[in-house]
Amino acid sequence: MSRTIFDIIGNTPLIASQVLNTNPNVKLLFKMEGHNPGGSVKDRAAFNMIKSGLEKGAISKNSRLIEATSGNTGIALAMIAGIYGLDIELVMPENSTKERVQTMRAYGAKVTLTPSDVGIEGARDYAENKVKQEGFIMLDQFANEDNWKAHYKTTGPEIWRDTEGAVTHFVSAMGTTGTIMGTSTFLKEQDPNIQIVGVQPTDGSSIPGIRKWPEAYLPKIFDAKKVDQVIEVDTEEAREMAKRLAKEEGIFSGMSSGGATVAALKLAKTIDKGTIVSIICDRGDRYLSSDLFD
Catalytic one among 172, 256, 257, 278? Predict the structure, then answer.
């Protein structure tokens, strides 16, 4: 039977930490989301938002789509929209890495860069104005239920299946919060004792893909009750861990994966035993033009 690109979204491998985890009674497993065809965990949400939007009639082949993104969601949306023949404009801060911009354009998307000093919030404001004034349709990953439902349908069940129900802790960076919301919802239904750990930057830290949102921009899909614990990570810790993941575990990923790993290792030192699953949300090759690996 022939497969399509959609068939290889998800079912990403779980691999055990061989070096970084030093607690012999704790198993630390990395969920390798860079193995998705678009190179990140965001393929899941992008596919579910576009497919469900078309099925519900919320969008059509004639829709002009627009979305603000810090990178990975944009790449995923560009890939999925291209396959469906949809017109999409992606808006991101001008300090985004050139690999991200070029990849979105390669998939056929229009890319608009907004001033870096207003960050992703400025990109979100730009996209919302285009919706109000020019008739664009925003998928709105921050408020779209099909974002978190992608992880309820896929990421959570995969983790439960691949750990044979042994998972005790789930660790995820929090950006749009779709990954942690959907995975938490599923895992808590299987076993309410599973601990869900979110990762945020410390005050003053900047970690692409991990945010501590101002109240006005807090994702509408976020429900604090679904997160048992939040571990804060600073910029330098996240940067250093991204380098260590590559050098010591052979896992080439971005800074948000470094941040999640810092949190997972801190957690591993505080528990007597268990199985921790931590999300490695993308691949490191889209950060090569930045100073991350200098």
Answer: 256
Domain membership of residue 53 as a residue range: 42-138
106 and 222 inside one domain: no
* Beta carbons of 171 and 264 less than 8 angstroms apart: yes
Say which amino acid occupies 288: L
Q: Clarify whether 42 is annotated catalytic.
A: yes
pLDDT per residue, tens digit, the chain (294 aa), is 789 999 999 999 999 999 999 999 999 999 999 999 999 999 999 999 999 999 999 999 999 999 999 889 999 999 999 999 999 999 999 988 899 999 999 999 999 999 999 888 899 999 999 999 999 999 999 999 999 999 999 999 999 999 999 999 999 999 999 999 999 999 999 999 999 999 999 999 989 889 898 888 899 999 999 999 999 999 999 999 999 999 999 999 999 999 999 999 999 999 999 999 999 999 999 999 888 898
257 part of the active site = no
How far is 209 from 192, CA to CA, in rounded Å? Answer: 27
Q: Is residue 294 part of a domain?
A: no
Q: Is 175 annotated as a binding residue?
A: yes
Gap between the Cα atoms of 180 and 3, Å rounded: 29
Do 257 and 188 lie in a common domain?
yes
pTM over cut 0.85: yes
Strand bridging mode 14-16 / 26-32: antiparallel
Instruction: Give ∠ CA 137-42-179 in degrees, rounded to 5.
Output: 105
